[in-house]
Amino acid sequence: MAKDINNSKSVDEHIQKLPADLEQLSQAIRVTILGSSKEVGEQIKWNSPSFFFQGEMKDFDAKEYKRDLIVMNIRKGRVLLIFPTGDKIKLNTSILEGKYEDGRRMVTIKNLEDLKNKDEALRAVIKQWLAQVERE
């Protein structure tokens, strides 16, 4: 069953508290992620803006993070986009970094120009991740 956890207001509030440069970058990233598919929702999870599949899914163990698409890790000078189950993305792209034992992969966005350069590849990664969701 789909979860009704989409909470754009809490994401707005979180992002508005950031320094101006990171607020602008985080908002632009948010627009890219949400604009990639109507199936992507947003919330605050793990004290960060995060994005998830908001449709109906087959039952799964919550520790598998199958619903969780991206968590924004906002740091001074950059935003890391953490894909908790990124190892399932087999797309041949240089934007996905790291190969962690727990399956995480990430994309580093340094500024608006970097986002512009990675926009198409980021959208492709999101679409491939969504294509692998085990829908009900």
Protein architecture, described:
The chain has 136 residues and is an alpha+beta fold. The protein has three helices and five strands, in the order H-H-E-E-E-E-E-H. It has helices at residues 8-16, 20-35, 112-131; strands at residues 40-45, 48-53, 68-75, 78-83, 105-109. A five-stranded antiparallel beta sheet has the order 1-2-3-4-5, with helices on one face. Strand 3 and strand 4 form a beta hairpin. The mean pLDDT is 90.
How is this structure best summarized?
The chain is built from three helices and five strands. The chain is α+β, with helices and mostly antiparallel strands and 136 residues long.
Write the layout of secondary structure elements.
Elements lengths: L7 H9 L3 H16 L4 E6 L2 E6 L14 E8 L2 E6 L21 E5 L2 H20 L5
Antiparallel strand pairs: 1-2, 2-3, 3-4, 4-5
Order the strands across the largest sheet as they lie in space: 1-2-3-4-5
Can you give the mean pLDDT? 90
Report the structural category.
Answer: alpha+beta
Order of helices and strands: HHEEEEEH
Q: What's the alpha carbon Rg, rounded to whole Å?
A: 14 Å
Q: How can the largest sheet be summarized?
A: 5 strands, antiparallel
The number of helices is 3
Number of strands: 5
Helix content: 25-40%
Estimated share of beta-strand residues: 15-25%
